[in-house]
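Researcher: Quick test of sequence recovery. Tokens follow.
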């Protein structure tokens, strides 16, 4: 459709956008199963259903129906069944395992497990499923069964562990994540591990089905030594655990090689060093040789994490080639998430899916001649694609959201590279309004990402397009402190935010202001989480912006310590000392210290159930600005966690966007 016949994007288009996840190709390579999430505007409820796409390009069709959340589909090894999680029947209870035959028919409940199911996978022979399960606490089960107690709610919460809450979930149960198996025919369950202090995660079968590898932090107090993850093996029927020697540090997603002799996993060597790259490691399954970091010399971070507000790309476990000589894994590079391959000797690093977008879930057919994957970019939140590995040709299998997006003019976007104040390279993007006229002067909005250990880039951002549709040039960049540009770039702000990151953001703002179509007297700034921190830091250090919106911010590192779900570990970003040992360090890097210099009209947005950045962080900023006589307003969203902008209730997401636009319109137009 010609641009002149298209409309601008609207806030309420959030109701229309379908979110794809978890694309899995069948063993025979003929079909891809995946999940699609939609929103009912009348009830604000989110539903997800399974869809099936044919790899011959004949299209995709909905596979499950109903008012429930069907997700996490997994093909049985022979391709005859699909296991998935669903809350059908009991929407207020944890999702349970269901099986549906691929030949047609109704889904059946496999087992009623008394708790929450996380990761799960089929055994190689298709007879069992291996699950991570966190049982419901006994008092919670009793409350659910007693209508009066259920109505009255929780009387009190009693904790001894330090990490007792998690943003997006709430207050954690006392039960831990443990390994269970479920008989795929009878539904009989068996608990393999059980410990009141330790969790087990990322379980994986050996090719012969005799062993299970998993990760666990089994230090004396995991809450106080959160980086001491170990790699373990145990018999698939239960029994004694054996730790595979490996450097201290984070570990996740172990996967056996096809011959069972090796295990690949993602890991970091070292404690309290979040900036380090997540590497791809291999280690003998017998533990007789030390692990090797295959990616160390390439300065790459293994992840798919690239910020967007329409679903998040999943970081998949590494995948082995059938001959055991090659590994496939995702990395974040220059605003994109790529799929790469590397030989087991650490050489022959190659691109499988190249730059320009973000690769999410991926999977191979049994013969590995075909690979299905999710891929999104700046113009599309994500579709299912097929790569034929013999010809190297790709084919798009789905067209979700195209009926909507083909009618919308998103505007033009430009990728820019500039030199930073330390001679460093800064990558950024400038989004221009639909119908852009280079002869005009436009107000602009600087967007700052959260994290900070993540990246903006080549991924669909509804928020940016919505602001651009309202007549703003929207600029976003990746200053030092984030991912995608090497470990030195990520480490640049370790020991204290508000230094190199601020310098880079001001250099990017200078570049933006120098563009002939920008009105430098009408520039705004906004960001959430760490981006909210930087927004408050900026208004305390410069008056160059005419308006600001700080969202779910960090403002006071002293009061943040111990009150966030990150708990005490925020100190690792400074000097790894608590505030009662180095109060000045915390105060010097707290934006609230400098708020007395602020004159910029500022809207403060925060979510009342934010457990990552507690709402008192935003309250301090609002109260301080009002005391200073600076024009300020406070918008609070009830019930919402930290991730409102991505996963919150849709009417509240829309209200948030409209508050941001209202504030900038007031001061920039």
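Model:
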């Amino acid at each position: 459709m010609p641009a002149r016949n298209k409309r601008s994007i609207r806030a309420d288009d959030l109701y229309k956008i379908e979110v794809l996840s978890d694309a899995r190709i069948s063993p025979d390579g003929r079909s891809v199963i995946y999940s699609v999430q939609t929103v009912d505007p009348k009830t604000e409820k989110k539903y997800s259903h399974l869809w099936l796409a044919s790899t011959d390009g004949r299209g995709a069709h909905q596979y499950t129906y109903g008012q429930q959340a069907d997700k996490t589909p997994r093909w049985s090894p022979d391709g005859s069944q699909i296991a998935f999680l669903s809350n059908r029947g009991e929407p207020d209870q944890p999702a349970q395992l269901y099986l549906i035959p691929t030949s047609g028919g109704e889904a059946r409940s496999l087992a009623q497990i008394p708790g929450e199911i996380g990761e799960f996978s089929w055994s190689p022979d298709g007879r069992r499923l291996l699950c991570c399960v966190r049982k419901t606490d006994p008092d919670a089960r009793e409350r659910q069964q007693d209508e009066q107690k259920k109505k009255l709610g929780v009387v009190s919460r009693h904790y001894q562990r330090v990490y007792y809450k998690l943003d997006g979930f709430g207050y954690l149960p006392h039960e831990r994540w443990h390994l269970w198996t479920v008989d795929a025919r009878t539904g009989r369950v068996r608990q393999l591990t059980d410990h009141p202090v330790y969790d087990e995660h990322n379980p994986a079968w050996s090719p012969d089905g005799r062993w299970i590898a998993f990760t666990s932090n089994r230090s004396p107090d995991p809450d106080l030594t959160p980086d001491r993850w170990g790699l373990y093996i145990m018999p698939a029927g239960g029994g004694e655990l054996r730790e595979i020697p490996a450097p201290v540090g984070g570990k996740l997603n172990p996967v056996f090689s096809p011959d069972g002799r090796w295990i690949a996993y993602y890991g970091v060597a070292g404690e309290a060093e979040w900036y380090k790259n997540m590497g791809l490691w291999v280690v003998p399954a017998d533990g007789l040789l030390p692990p090797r970091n295959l990616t160390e010399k390439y300065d790459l971070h293994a992840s798919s994490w690239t910020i967007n507000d329409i679903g998040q790309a999943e970081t998949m476990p590494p995948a082995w080639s059938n001959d055991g000589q090659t590994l496939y894994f995702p990395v974040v590079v220059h605003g994109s998430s790529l799929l790469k391959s590397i030989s087991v000797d650490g050489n022959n690093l190659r691109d499988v899916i190249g730059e320009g977008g973000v690769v999410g879930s991926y999977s191979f057919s049994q013969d590995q001649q075909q690979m299905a994957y999710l891929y999104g970019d700046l113009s599309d939140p994500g579709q299912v694609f097929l790569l034929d590995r013999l010809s190297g040709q790709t084919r798009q299998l789905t067209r979700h959201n195209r009926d909507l997006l083909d009618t919308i003019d998103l505007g033009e976007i430009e990728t820019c590279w500039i030199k930073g104040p330390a001679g460093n390279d800064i990558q950024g993007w400038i989004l221009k309004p639909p119908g852009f006229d280079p002869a005009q002067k436009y107000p602009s909005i600087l967007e700052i990402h959260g994290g900070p250990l993540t990246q903006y880039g080549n991924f669909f951002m509804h928020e940016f397009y919505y602001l651009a549709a309202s007549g703003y040039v929207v600029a976003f960049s990746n200053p030092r402190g984030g991912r995608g540009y090497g470990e030195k770039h990520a480490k640049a702000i370790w020991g204290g935010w508000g230094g190199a990151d601020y310098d880079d953001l001001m250099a990017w703002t200078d570049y933006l202001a120098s563009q002939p179509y920008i009105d430098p007297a009408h520039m705004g700034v906004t960001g959430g989480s760490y981006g909210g921190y930087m927004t408050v830091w900026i208004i305390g250090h410069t008056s160059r912006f005419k308006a600001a919106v700080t969202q779910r911010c960090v403002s006071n590192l002293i009061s943040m310590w111990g009150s966030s779900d990150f708990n005490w570990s925020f100190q690792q970003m400074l000097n790894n000392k608590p505030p009662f040992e180095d109060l000045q360090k915390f105060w010097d890097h707290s934006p609230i210290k400098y708020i007395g210099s602020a004159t910029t009209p500022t809207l403060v947005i925060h979510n009342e159930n934010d457990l990552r950045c507690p709402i008192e962080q935003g309250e301090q900023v609002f109260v301080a600005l009002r005391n200073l006589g600076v024009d300020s307003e406070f918008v609070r969203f009830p019930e919402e966690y930290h991730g409102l902008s991505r996963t919150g209730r849709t009417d509240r997401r829309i209200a948030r966007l409209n508050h941001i636009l209202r504030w900038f319109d007031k001061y920039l137009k």
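The radius of gyration is 25 Å.
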